[in-house]
Amino acid sequence: MATASKSSAQCKEDKQMQDYFKIADRTFTSRLILGTARYPNPETMLESIAASGTGMVTVAVRRYNLEDQSSESILGLLKSGAFHILPNTAGCYTAKEAVLTAELAREALETNWIKLEVIGDDETLMPDVVELLKAASQLVALGFIVMPYTNDDPITARKLADTGCAVVMPLGAPIGSGGGIRNPANITIIRELVSIPVIIDAGIGTASHAALAMELGADGILLNTAISCAQHPAQMARAMKLAVEAGRAAYLARRIPERLMAERSSPIGGMIAHA
Predict the structure, then answer these.
(1) For the domain with range 27-253, which CATH number is right: 3.40.50.2300, 3.20.20.70, 3.40.50.970, 3.90.78.10?
(2) Which of 8, 140, 177, 197 has the smallest C-beta neighbourhood within 10 Å, fewest atoms?
(3) Is the pLDDT of residue 61 over 80?
């Protein structure tokens, strides 16, 4: 009887210790968000999404026919899954374009969630900060839950948070570059400056990049190309899932301080003297 009681208490404690991920009014069990572009075929996309364990996928509003939500369409296939669909404003270059795209997405997909992208040019695909901040402010006022893709500038991140965005999503490296986390210190500073979730969006190329981002204190990862363009997408999706989980666990465990010189792992007191 005592054993059963202990087992029940342990189960309750384990449930309380689960590391849930909350954005606005939704709670997710996975901290990995996936894009849905550039997969070789819909079957591979669905297989990869399943292997990743994600609870949210993002779709580019301007690249899909929102009116076609049949069971065989991309939107229809995604809607059949047990995950949240996050429309994004990819391909927008001004606040006006982004706000209009978000409003179209809200009407067609019946969601007020939006991943906000306002790009400065076609070569770098870096955010246009002025237009981004303008769009974020307008969308928040219109009742959207805004998830903005931004550069890794701590001041911009803080301004987006102050505007009322649900999260901030600094890039690790340029979109599709696979460059990893180019400025780790900036990610750490952003984590210190804002109280809302920080999600690394863009630049992740492999599992070690994802793990590092999480160890720096990121709350989640949004990626696409690293999985969709891998030689074995579903296998990479599973690797990313494990990397995000491992990086988060390491962050919560609080690593040892970094040292320049060695430090003994075993005490020297009481050592047996040699004759």
Answers:
(1) 3.20.20.70
(2) 8
(3) yes
